[in-house]
UniProtKB/TrEMBL annotation:
It comes from Plutella xylostella (Diamondback moth). Signal peptide: none annotated. GO terms for biological process: non-motile cilium assembly. The lineage of its organism: Eukaryota, Metazoa, Ecdysozoa, Arthropoda, Hexapoda. This is (diamondback moth) hypothetical protein. The keyword Transmembrane helix applies. The keyword Transmembrane applies.
Length: 143
């Protein structure tokens, strides 16, 4: 039997460091793409689409920070309500990463790697958080 609480806590700990790296690198590549796209392609739609990319990244940063804080508090105190909210916030977070992976103006190869790894971590967190919630909601057995 897998200790879902321990696995979930380890994944949250790993994700707290990885997301900082992910957000910093994604912001850096977005700034680089802004400069290169505006210089290389003189497209009128570029400021709007780049603004949309920045907005998605900013929203992802906020949602992911709240999700990680709720997940850590719920996991450490062994309460299921904050973990449930963390699981609910995983859905918009996954959608934000999928936007960065698929729908950006220009997607670099390194972004495919970053976003795929982020999706893998989020999927594993979702699975172990669900297992944690199920074990917390189950009536205790005194065998």
């Amino acid at each position: 039997m897998v200790n879902a609480s321990l696995a979930y806590e380890i994944l949250l700990y790993i994700n707290s460091f990885y997301f900082g790296l992910f957000a910093t690198c994604e912001l850096g590549t977005l700034i680089l793409k802004s400069v290169l796209i505006i210089e290389k392609y003189n497209v009128r739609e570029t400021p709007w689409t780049l603004g949309q990319d920045y907005a998605v990244l900013l929203g992802l940063m906020v949602i992911e920070a709240i999700r990680l804080i709720l997940g850590r508090k719920g996991s450490l105190s062994e309460r299921d309500i904050p973990v449930m909210f963390s699981v609910l916030l995983t859905i918009p977070s996954i959608i934000g990463v999928l936007y960065l992976l698929v729908l950006q103006v220009v997607v670099l190869r390194i972004e495919y790697i970053w976003c795929t790894l982020m999706l893998a971590i989020q999927t594993l967190e979702f699975i172990f958080a669900t297992m944690f919630i199920v074990t917390m909601c189950k009536a205790p057995s005194y065998d």
